[in-house]
Write a structure and sequence with these properties.
The chain has three helices and six strands. By secondary structure, it is of the alpha+beta class. It has one domain (3-83): RRM (RNA recognition motif) domain (Alpha-Beta Plaits, 2-Layer Sandwich).
C-alpha cells in the first residue's frame, strides 16, 4: 500500500488536542485495510518523526434517518499514534 493511501486525514477534535499536549499522541483517520506497521511507516516517512506506539480501532458508521427512510453512514478506521518524547507534528503552524 502506498504511503499517501494509508493516512487519509488528521483528526482535530477537543480530545485529540488534549492527548497531543498531555501524552504526545496524534490521531489519524486511516485506510480501513491498513495495519499498524503500515500506519507507523507512513507517519514516520511523511512527518519525519519516530513512532513509539500505534493503536487502531474500527469506528462503526452511525444510523441516520430522513423521514421514514433509515440509512447508515460508512464506518472508518482510527489510528492513535504515540510519538517519541521530543518529536511533534504541527498541523496549523503560523495560523
Amino acid at each position: 500500500m502506498n504511503i499517501s493511501d494509508v493516512i487519509k486525514r488528521p483528526l482535530i477534535t477537543e480530545k485529540s488536542t488534549l492527548l497531543k499536549g498531555a501524552a504526545n499522541t496524534v490521531l489519524f483517520a486511516v485506510d480501513s485495510g491498513a495495519n499498524k506497521k503500515e500506519v507507523k511507516d507512513a507517519v514516520e516517512k511523511s512527518f519525519k518523526v519516530k513512532v513509539v506506539d500505534v493503536r487502531t480501532m474500527n469506528v462503526a458508521g452511525k444510523t441516520k434517518r430522513r423521514g421514514r427512510t433509515i440509512g447508515l453512514r460508512p464506518g472508518w478506521k482510527k489510528a492513535i499514534v504515540t510519538l517519541k518524547e521530543g518529536d511533534k507534528i504541527e498541523f496549523f503552524e503560523g495560523v
